[in-house]
Write a structure and sequence with these properties.
The structure is a homodimer. Chain A is built from 13 helices and seven strands. Chain A is α/β, with parallel strands linked by helices. The interface between A and B is large, with 80 and 81 residues.
Chain lengths: 312, 312
């Protein structure tokens, strides 16, 4: 089948075409460039991108399921992109409870896809933008991007999303730990899940105190939820709407999307240069330079200069 | 003071010179290149690099402290590089208990430094190798690199370290969650900390079952610890020694270090190219391309081509 036909079918909302295109994008298909050009050339709508991140065990996938339901209630077409390697959507032999998302398995207005997040220069910056374009082409009005924190992935998701939800759970010192980890800087909305457990109030208070120390135009709301019972779903959806309204009125939405396009172009250019290094010399030149750094006192900066001269 | 004097003082094991050089490296000092060349030109010894990673709350810093003590018992000079943004060594207003590591604050054979891990192309790949060279120059025979998991940071640390410890704690489904997150692939040694808590045996069993599914030349041992009481310290140190012996006898140590040198050279070359994009056009070209991607249906691959042509 022609790639242009696949793109047409995705635009018509055909789930298998959507799935196939995302797989092609994720696997670095040789048609990636063509697919991207087709998706860009006539992009019908632009989705709201909502990132959802948090440590393992806080209930990311259950919360994603809850939000899908909330957005469906508002009659929006929803996409889910799970770039969380620990997500039950990701597949693989170790994974158990796909059950919850199967509530939506037969809903033609919900598209759920998982992506591997591995890759040298960050899988997210590389393939996720194209996967988002596929979901936008399929008419998704909201896309939830689920990824595991804390670390580089969390920074990536913040640059990818319009709104970033940071999910915490009471206990295990998550509140403070998360704050230490720079999560304060990236969260637009805090969700404290498992709010039927001891310590919820303490976690909320801790977060509130820390937020009070930071002067920012948008103060992230803190929403308690019990995701597996669907408690707090409407409140989270309202908080997301409020943040969207802020983004639009402040001009921040345009700014974020522009920054995202810049990052994407730059990442593609760097990846192209990187493969140019490898292709020109079949990796042998880099191997030889690495050996000289290890054994002959060559410093890596001079080695990098030699690599670039050779790839000129 | 001349940079060459600083490097000499670091070689003599003077802690303030070590601290100053690491700060310069971390802050991207204009002398970075010169410092690196000096460190490389006459590198006296090569340290064992041990990575330690795990989710927030599993007790990374306590475990690091415990291991410092174990290596000091073996009369080794030890460096600690905390690239974990949630580490109590990292500093900043929110951070509490630096207490434990202060046991070592007056020991001239222990060097402890924290580094920020942020940065677009991964702070670790950029500055950490130079910081490790500083600690090696200061005569450290072992360097513990502490970083938070799960995510990209964990992959980075695996490529940086000779041996990677993955730290878990019982409960909160950490065992399975961690395994899902691809931790199985990077762990050389598993430590189940807080082993005085309920669920330790379950976590160990879970890990063991998962490891049994994977066929690899090195099967990671699983060591229970109670780090705050120092329980299990010797067992972890023994497991690390066993892995080092494996690395040496299999040729894997040389292979890992060579791959690390390659990665470093490549990262430096890419960073240089990236700043060339920015400098040549004062970012205006990239801005204009981003706008065309957002508003005019330009695809990002074509935009990247234009960027590279312009930066030729």
């Amino acid at each position: 089948m022609e790639v242009s036909d696949l793109v047409e079918m995705a635009r018509a909302g055909r789930p298998r075409a959507v799935a196939r295109l995302i797989s092609m994008v994720e696997n670095g298909s040789p048609r990636l460039r063509e697919i991207t050009a087709l998706l860009c050339a006539d992009r019908p709508r632009r989705a709201r991108i909502i990132g959802l991140t948090g440590s393992p065990g806080v209930g990311k996938s259950t919360s994603t399921g809850m939000l899908v339901q909330a957005f469906r209630k508002r009659d929006l077409r929803v996409g889910v992109l799970a770039v969380d390697p620990s997500s039950p959507f990701t597949g693989g032999a170790l994974l158990g409870d796909r059950v919850r998302m199967q509530d939506h398995a037969t809903d033609p207005d919900v598209f759920i896809r998982s992506m591997a997040s591995r890759g040298h220069l960050g899988g997210l910056s590389w393939a996720a933008p194209q996967a988002l374009r596929v979901l936008e082409a399929a008419g998704c009005e909201v896309v939830l991007v689920e990824t595991v924190g804390v670390g580089q992935a969390e920074v990536d998701i913040a640059s990818l999303a319009d709104t970033t939800i940071v999910l915490l759970a009471p206990g295990m010192g998550d509140g403070v730990q998360a704050a230490k980890a720079g999560i304060l800087e990236i969260a637009d909305v805090f969700v404290v899940n498992k709010a039927d457990r001891d310590g919820t109030q303490a976690t909320v208070r801790e977060l509130r105190n820390m937020l009070a120390l930071v002067e920012r135009p948008w103060r992230p709301p803190i929403v308690p939820t019990v995701a597996y019972r669907g408690e707090g779903a409407e409140e989270v959806a309202d908080a997301l709407d409020a943040h969207l309204a802020y983004l639009e009125s402040s001009g921040e939405l345009v700014r974020r999307r522009h920054a995202r396009a810049r990052d994407e172009i730059e990442a593609i250019a760097l990846a192209a240069l990187r493969s140019r290094f490898a292709h020109l010399h079949g990796d042998r030149r880099l191997d030889a330079l690495a050996t000289r750094v290890l054994d002959a006192g060559l410093d890596p900066y001079t080695a990098a200069d030699e690599l670039m001269e050779a790839s000129g």
